Amino acid sequence: MSAHFEERSGVVPCKTPWGSWYQTMEEVFIEVNVPHGTSGKEVKCHLGSRDIELHVKGEEVFKGKLFDTTMSDEATWTLEDKCLIRIILMKTNREAGNCWASLLEGEYCANAWVQDQMQRKLTLERFQRENPGFDFSGAEISGNFAGGGPDFSSLQK
């Protein structure tokens, strides 16, 4: 379901010196620009449940403790067109309120505007899941969307 929502609504990337990262309720996507012609043998990538490390051609791109935990056995990386590494991490906590403020603890932080846009996006994604007959991909929200938006669970149906 997230893939279709993302296709219709776009992504909110957090730019970094090496590329960008963005997130959905379920996943964190990392896109790393590498020199054209890079081969898979020149990429060393460790994807742990709480840590990540990427080296390209012997140079460290990033290394550190992730903002939150992931399911390491479901993490993947690919080298696309010999110039882009795409890493996909599956979040352990898949709630709309689990909006990562940074990729690594204290590093690659989303600025206040990007963080706000990411949280809005996750809240709309949550609304989409809760109301599959509606299309929230182009919706705008204002007000209380921090922490996953308003809680309607106590309302009777």
TrEMBL record:
Q: Give GO cellular component annotations, separated by semicolons.
A: cytoplasm
Q: Which GO terms describe its molecular function?
A: unfolded protein binding
SUPFAM superfamilies, per the entry: HSP20-like chaperones
InterPro entries membership: CS_dom, HSP20-like_chaperone, NudC_fam, p23_NUDCD2
In terms of Pfam families, this protein maps to: CS
Record domain CS: where: 14-104
Q: Name one GO biological process term.
A: protein folding
The identity of this protein, by name, is NudC domain containing protein 2
Q: Which species is this record about?
A: Dissostichus eleginoides
